[in-house]
Design a protein that fits this description.
The chain is of the alpha/beta class. The strands form two sheets. Strands 4-3-2-5-6-12-11 form a seven-stranded mixed sheet, with helices on both faces. It is globular and about 55 Å long. The relative contact order is 0.17. The longest helix has 13 residues. Helix 3 links the parallel strand 2 and strand 3.
Length: about 240
């Protein structure tokens, strides 16, 4: 296809097709099972993306604030969520409000570097009410083995745009790399995503250093996702 070959930043182009290519509304029941283990009223979601979870929670009657660093994702979220949606960096944020619950799901934490985790955990802790919970997932390290052989998906979307999506792991860098190529009338648009796969004990230690009582569910999604629940000021059993 003739035209330019353009590379864009993370989610700049993918945002508008995120739910089409990666969406799975039924999967959010996995997170909701743990989210609703304890009563809460107010919730801040970090890295909300297309805000499917925020929308589901709002429909259940919770007071939910969505957020993301990406303006394009905020725009894409309008079909899923009609509440407050903030643009903020989850690494270091300051809001004039505290919440009963803060969540960060769908591997969003893996976009951070290890040295950024403590800053994020401190920001979260500072924005939780006493007894509040912080729930997030992260890649199971077994995913590095899963994607040591490259995964390739090709297809065509309803508007006729063709795409190629590849995933591969770098075992030396402990990263999972996703690359999207969209074949448009204007030419190819390419978007690259790198996610860091963390040592689980390191995450637990950093949560404890930031005053959280920690619960880790290693079999949250078997061989794929590990769930962490941090609680402010209360000892968890």
């Amino acid at each position: 296809m003739e035209g330019s070959n353009r590379e864009v930043k993370e989610y700049e182009y993918l945002a508008q097709y995120y739910d089409t290519l990666l969406g799975d509304e039924e999967a959010f029941s996995f997170w909701l099972d743990y989210i609703e283990e304890e009563p809460f009223t107010t919730c801040l979601e970090l890295a909300s993306g297309s805000a499917v979870l925020a929308g589901l929670m709002k429909k259940k009657g919770y007071d939910v604030t969505a957020s993301d660093i990406c303006l394009e994702m905020k725009e894409a979220a309008k079909t899923n969520f009609d509440g407050e949606y903030l643009i903020l960096n989850m690494i270091d944020f300051k809001l004039d409000k505290k919440y009963d619950l803060i969540v960060c799901v769908v591997d969003s934490l893996n976009y951070l570097y290890e040295e950024e985790l403590s800053s994020m955990f401190k920001s979260v802790y500072d924005h939780l009410n006493d007894g509040g919970r912080f729930i997030f997932d992260t890649h199971n390290p077994k995913r590095l083995i899963e994607f040591s052989e490259e995964y390739i998906e090709e297809g065509q979307m309803d508007n006729g745009i063709c795409y190629q999506w590849t995933i591969n792991a770098d075992l030396d860098e402990n990263t999972i790399n996703e690359h999207f190529t969209f074949y448009t009338d204007e030419g190819m648009i390419q978007e690259h995503h790198t996610q860091n796969v963390f040592d689980l004990k390191m995450i637990e230690d950093k949560l404890i250093e930031n005053k959280f009582a920690v619960r880790m569910i290693e079999d949250f999604v078997e061989d794929e996702k590990v769930l962490f629940i941090g609680k402010k000021h209360e000892k968890m059993v």
